[in-house]
Amino acid sequence: MDSLIPFTTSGSLVDCVDRKMLVVLRDGRKLHGVLRSYDQFANLVLEDTVERIYHEDAFAESFHGLFLIRGENVVLLGEIDLDQEDDVQLRQVDYALLEQYTKHDAEIKKQKEEVKSQVLFQQKGFCKEGGEGDGY
């Protein structure tokens, strides 16, 4: 009976080793790389890692190589389907060109979150605890 219970621990990552993965971090960064190792805390080691940024119908990549990610910073981890990866209808552009747009988008999002937090505090009594990266 116990063998029918799915893994809910870092042990469930064993099938993901040596596969290309997408990792979304608490700060919103999206990393693509090959999962090489992990531990009981879901700390991850990615190889050939690139950080991707997106804006409208374009994306850009910045190469990071070997990347160690602390498990508590992982929001989402998913395998990339290599057969469908090339079918994505986005055009690749230079990272420096797209970076200014994504920073602007992030600043607008941050301002909206601050306004929302202020309204919730003043009108509904919610506390202002938390901070940068605690949105998940």
Features:
cytoplasm, 25% helix, alpha+beta, Lsm1, 6-stranded mixed β-sheet, Sm, Sm_dom_euk/arc, RNA-binding, 6 strands, globular, 136 residues
Structure notes:
The structure is a single chain. This protein is α+β, with helices and mostly antiparallel strands and 136 residues long. The protein has a domain at 2-93: SH3 type barrels, CATH 2.30.30.100. Helix content is 25%, strand content 35%. The chain has two helices and six strands. A six-stranded mixed beta sheet has the order 5-1-2-3-4-6. It is globular, with a radius of gyration of 18 Å. The chain starts with 19 loop residues before the first strand and ends in a 12-residue tail after the last helix. The mean pLDDT is 86. Residues 8-83 form the Sm domain. Keywords: Cytoplasm, mRNA processing, Ribonucleoprotein, RNA-binding.
Largest sheet: 6 strands, mixed
Q: Evaluate the radius of gyration.
A: 18 Å
Estimate the strand proportion. Answer: 25-35%
Question: What is the name of the CATH class of the domain at 2-93?
Answer: Mainly Beta
Subcellular location: Cytoplasm; Cytoplasm, P-body
Organism: Hohenbuehelia grisea
Domain Sm: 8-83
Pfam families: LSM
